[in-house]
Amino acid sequence: MEESGQFSPEIRVSREPNLPNLRYTGKSEASISHPERNEDAIGYNAQHGIAMVLDGVGGLHGGDRASRVARDIIAAQLKLIPISSDPDTAKRGIGDALVEASTRVLAEVPGAGATAVVAKFLEIKGERRVIIGSVGDSRAYLLRGGVLRQITEDDSTTASLPLEEKRALDQKLASVETPQDLAALNQKERGYWHTRNVILEMLGNKNGTSRPHVYQIALQKSDKIILTTDGIHDNLSHREMERIAKEQPEVAEELVKHAKARSADNRHTRHKPDDISAVVVDVEQEKPSAADRIEGNQVRKLDRISGHAQPEQSVRPPEINNSQSTEKPIQTYDLSGGKEVAITYEGKPIKVILPSGQVLEIGDRRILNMNGSNVDFLIIDRKELTTSKVQAGFKGLREGERVTLGRQNPGRFRFADNVSRQHLEIGREKGKIIIRDLNSKNGTKVEI
Question: Which residue ranges form the domains of the chain, and what is each CATH number?
Answer without folding.
Answer: 5-156+196-314 (3.60.40.10), 332-447 (2.60.200)
